[in-house]
Amino acid sequence: MDNARESEDEHCLYAQELVFAYNRSMVLRAAIQLGLLDALAGGGDALTADELAGKIQATDGVAVDRILRFLASFDVVRCSTETSPGGGAALIRRYTPAPVCRWLTKNNGEGSLAPFSVFIIDEDHLLPWQHIAEAVASGGPAPSERTNGMPYHEYIGNNKRLSGLFDHAMAQHSAIRARKMLERFEGFDGIQRLVDVGGGDGSTLGMITSRYKHIRGINYDLPHVISQAPSLPGVEHIAGDMYESVPNGDVILLQWMLLMFSDEDCIKILKNCHQALPEGGKVIIVEGLLPETPNTTPAARDSFTMDMILFVLFKVGKHRTEEEFAKLAKESGFTGTFRSTYIFLNFYALEFNK
C-alpha cells in the first residue's frame, strides 16, 4: 500500500472512530454495572467469558465475550488465546485486567471512577447532548436546561435517583483527589482553622484533619447537604450559603467547585472568601487546569472533555486556565503571593494570599 493510500485510510478510520466514540463509554458503563470488571479484578488465573459470565450470573456468555474483546481493543482488559482441547479450529480467549482497571473497580478505599461512569452516562445526561448545536446557534439556556425545563442544579436537586448517583460519584472522585493532594501538597502546614467551602459530606476534610491533627476543620455546605453529613473527628459541619457569606478561617479550601459557575459568580464567592480571611490568609483552589493551547495529550483531552460536559450541563460553567484563575483571584481582592502545585492528572492546588 502506498503512503498516500495508507494515510487516507488512517484518516478515514480516525473519522469513523470519532463518529462512534460514544460506544466506549456505554460499553464500559455496562461492564461496570454487570460487575464484570470487579469479577475480573478479583485475582487468580485468566478467565474465559463463560467463566466470567458464571461469576456475574449472566446467561449470555457470547455477549460477555463481545464486551470483553471490545474492551481489550482499548486496553481496558488484556486477552490471550489458546487452542481448544482436542485441536479444534476455534480459539479460547482468556481475559485479565489491564492496569486501568484499578481506577474502574472497587479498590479498597483508594477511590474509583466507576461510579462517575454510571453517573455521567446516565440516561438523564444523554439527551441534552442533542441540543449543543441549538444552544450554540441561538444562544440562551444550556442544553440540559432546554431538555429538562430548568437549570441543572434545580433538576438534580429534585431527582433523588440522579442526586444519589452524583453524591456517590463525587465521593469516590474526591477520595482519589484528596489522597493525591495529601501525598504531594504541603500547603496545610501551620494552619489552625481550615474551611472547606462546598465540602459535601466532609470526607476530604476528614482525611486532611486525620493527617494534620492540629487543624480544626470547618465543613461548609448547603443545609440539605450538611444534614446528611456524618460525624468526623476534627470536623465541624456548618450549614450556609457561600453566595451570602463564608465562615472565618486561616485558610479556605475550594475543591473542584468553581468550575460550575460563571466568572461573575466565582468573583462573588471569592470575595466572600476574602472577607472571611485574616490579613495574610489564603484561599486554596483545587481544580483541573485548561491548557492555554489545545493539544492531544491525555491530560488536555480530559480537560477539554470536562469543559464540554460543563457547557452541556451549565453553559456558564467551564474549565479555566491558570491565568484565568489568577485574574478571578485578583479581581476578588487577592493581591498577595501566588503558588501552583501539581497534584494529579491535570489537577493543581492554586494558593492565593490575601
Q: What is the structure about, briefly put?
A:
With 354 residues, the protein is of the alpha/beta class.
Report mean pLDDT, rounded to a whole number. Answer: 93
Overall 3D shape? globular
- Count up the helices: 16
Written as H for each helix and E for each strand, in order along the chain, the element string is HHHHHEEHHHHHHEHEHEEHEHHEE
- Beta strands, count: 9
Percentage of residues in strands: 15-25%
Specify the CATH architecture of the largest domain: 3-Layer(aba) Sandwich
Pfam families: Dimerisation, Methyltransf_2
Keywords: Methyltransferase, S-adenosyl-L-methionine, Transferase
Domain O-methyltransferase C-terminal: 129-334
Domain O-methyltransferase dimerisation: 17-106
Describe the structure.
It holds the Pfam family Dimerisation. Keywords: Methyltransferase, S-adenosyl-L-methionine, Transferase. Residues 17-106 form the O-methyltransferase dimerisation domain. Residues 129-334 form the O-methyltransferase C-terminal domain. This protein has 354 residues and is of the alpha/beta class. It folds into two domains: 1-103, Arc Repressor Mutant, subunit A (Orthogonal Bundle); 184-353, Vaccinia Virus protein VP39 (Rossmann fold). Helices cover 46% and strands 16% of the residues. The chain is built from 16 helices and nine strands. A seven-stranded mixed β-sheet has the order 5-4-3-6-7-9-8, sandwiched between helices. Strands 1-2 form a two-stranded antiparallel sheet. A hairpin with a 7-residue loop joins strand 1 and strand 2. Helix 4 (49-55) packs across helix 5 (61-73). The longest helix has 25 residues, at 160-184. The chain is globular. The model has no long low-confidence stretch (mean pLDDT 93).
